[in-house]
Amino acid sequence: MNDDERVSPAEREKINFEIDLIGKLIEAREQKGLSQRELAELSGVKQPAIARLESMKTTPQIDTLFKILNPLGYTLSIVPLKSDAIDNRI
């Protein structure tokens, strides 16, 4: 049995979303030329928490994401799913 057979489609979607989200967060931090420590100072979120988030050892609370994303010039938003993603859920 491989990993895809052990993980439900919904769980796989959640994992892929987290990987994408964290990847974009790291990319935004690096584009700003900030270290984790500098981002911690700007966001008010402790550096070890940022490190755990970036290494996917923890799932962040929404308010923590807002605190981290704000100094990077980003925010969260809700967007519609692509129609094929909706069709696959039915």
UniProtKB/TrEMBL annotation:
<dbReference type="GO" id="GO:0003677">
    <property type="term" value="F:DNA binding"/>
</dbReference>
<dbReference type="InterPro" id="IPR010982">
    <property type="entry name" value="Lambda_DNA-bd_dom_sf"/>
</dbReference>
<feature type="domain" description="HTH cro/C1-type">
    <location>
        <begin position="25"/>
        <end position="79"/>
    </location>
</feature>
<dbReference type="Pfam" id="PF01381">
    <property type="entry name" value="HTH_3"/>
</dbReference>
<protein>
    <submittedName>
        <fullName>Helix-turn-helix transcriptional regulator</fullName>
    </submittedName>
</protein>
<dbReference type="InterPro" id="IPR001387">
    <property type="entry name" value="Cro/C1-type_HTH"/>
</dbReference>
